[in-house]
Specification:
CATH topology: 60s Ribosomal Protein L30, Chain: A
CATH architecture: 2-Layer Sandwich
Mean pLDDT: 96
Radius of gyration: 15 Å
CATH superfamily: 2-C-methyl-D-erythritol 2,4-cyclodiphosphate synthase
Keywords: Isoprene biosynthesis, Lyase, Metal-binding
Number of helices: 5
Shape: globular
Low-confidence stretches: none
Enzyme class: lyase
Structural class: alpha+beta
Number of strands: 7
Largest sheet: 5 strands, mixed
Domain 2-C-methyl-D-erythritol 2,4-cyclodiphosphate synthase: 3-156
Pathway: Isoprenoid biosynthesis; isopentenyl diphosphate biosynthesis via DXP pathway; isopentenyl diphosphate from 1-deoxy-D-xylulose 5-phosphate: step 4/6
CATH class: Alpha Beta
Catalytic activity: 4-CDP-2-C-methyl-D-erythritol 2-phosphate = 2-C-methyl-D-erythritol 2,4-cyclic diphosphate + CMP
Order of helices and strands: EEEEHHHEHEHE
Number of domains: 1
Helix content: 25-40%
């Protein structure tokens, strides 16, 4: 069995007048993340981790922010397409471990729903998706509530 690991990172600026979507769910908050797509930092970090593990470059390569096709797109579609790319290369998901860094809103109450939504999109068991939330203790752009970051590690495997 071939085992590979990938790492993903994403950040987006918070802005009034945008919906906040993290982990495939809409959160009730006064600001949303700014981006070409729906700017779901968690999904973007997971996509990059998966693509990196399979040596398939990165999310911007497959879903460029210069393409009108991806303007305001639901990032769950990008994650579904990422999983198709992996499966075409013969890989399956081992697990995901992800962390979202945000001062507000508090994410811990929403983690089970995020896990369930992501598992459905990826067609895997939710036990394979770990999501953690933290703050930056009021330091940096995350601490000043200017943006949100996400980090993800993905383990994939191929039977040979």
């Amino acid at each position: 069995m071939q085992i590979r690991v990938g790492f993903g990172y994403d950040m987006h600026r918070l802005q009034k007048g945008r919906e906040l979507r993290i982990g495939g769910i809409k959160l009730d908050y006064e600001k949303g993340l700014l981006g070409h797509s729906d700017a779901d930092v968690l999904i973007h970090a997971i996509c990059d981790a998966l693509l990196g593990a399979a040596n398939l470059r990165d999310i911007g390569y497959h879903f460029p922010d210069t393409s009108p096709e991806y303007h305001n797109v639901d990032s769950k579609l990008l994650l579904g397409d990422t999983m198709k790319l992996l499966r075409e290369k013969g890989y399956s998901l081992g697990n995901i471990d992800a962390t979202v860094c945000a001062e507000q809103p508090k994410l811990n109450p929403h983690i089970p729903a995020m896990q369930q939504v992501l598992a459905e999109v990826m067609a895997v068991d939710s036990s394979l998706i770990s999501i953690k939330a933290t703050t930056s203790e009021k330091m940096g752009f995350v601490g000043r509530e200017e943006g949100i970051t996400a980090y993800a590690v993905a383990l994939i495997q191929k039977s040979e």
